[in-house]
Amino acid sequence: MKSRMFIILTFLAIGLGYWWLSGDAEPVHHGAVAKTLNAEVANHQPEQATKNTPQVKSVRQSERHIPIEMTDAASKVAQLYEQQLRHAPYSQPLTLEDSDRLTPNHFYPVTIPTQDIEQVLTLKVSQYRFVYPEPIELMLTGSDIYGATVMVSEVDSNKVLITQSLLEQEGSYIASIPGRKDFPRALQLTVRAHVRGDEIPVVAQVQYMKPSAELVNLEQARVHGSDLLIDARLNVQEAGIYRVRANLFLGDQPLSHVVARKRLSEGVQTLPMKIHQSVLPNHASGLKLKTFVVERMSGSPQEKARFGRSKVSEFALDEVDLSDLQRQAYTPSAQEQQKLAFLKQLGKQ
After folding, report:
1. 186 phi/psi in degrees, rounded to 5
2. Among residues 6, 27, 113, 199, which is most buried (max CB within 10 A)?
3. Whether pTM exceeds 0.85
């Protein structure tokens, strides 16, 4: 949740910086209502000036003022960013509360009531995002179901692509829909359940896409200064800037969220992944990487990110000797320090 809040406030601060440099800042009215951290700042509408009061815009930089709400938001962004810079951005600490990172492709079940308000139907899908040729697996649960069908359609046009029956299995109804190369990205799943003579629809949406790259394997980890370095080998179908993410565990305990980025061309490519010593224990026994996500990042606002597959589900780091690590604190780069200084300056306006 902290990461989501940081992203929201970062976008706000970026817009704030652009707004400041554009020369459109107006004096803030002291009667303006302050917004809280739960992203309300993004929806704030400036207090409109009355028709009878002319507004004079200062041309001098020194007389520009940032609204108090935005100043407070920038200050909070600076605090969050400074806290994050205590650890390397490529291996931030991870806890059991970080569900969005621990299960990044989780599908949240859809539940609706039946005629009996005390009974519900629940539709579960194996994941939210699918990459060809993965099948779409789903399960319908509830009381008094005597049959169900699923209709797969295109979200934009409502064109029906597949219709098939669900099979009863131990009190539940399941289906496995084969993947297709021609599936559109946005798919709608409409399950029609027959309950006590009524047909009850349960609707869910998922994403389906062609793979952009595949994570083939990882090379043996090695120590490099204060970092543990692991080379990831990818088979790239479409060139672009790639981000590979994974979670570091010690047994069942999450330690760090590991992120690596690099521009890759087509073919077999290598992308180095780093883990800073600040999130590593003294011994490697029980260390492993899991939850790999391969993403071709968006190159423009009009382009959506695309995802790939991973042949690697888990990678053990038992054999590396962590005693060779240089146990030095992370030093932010010059660019990171400039970003922090900029945010702090905005917070003081």
Report:
1. -100, 115
2. 6
3. no
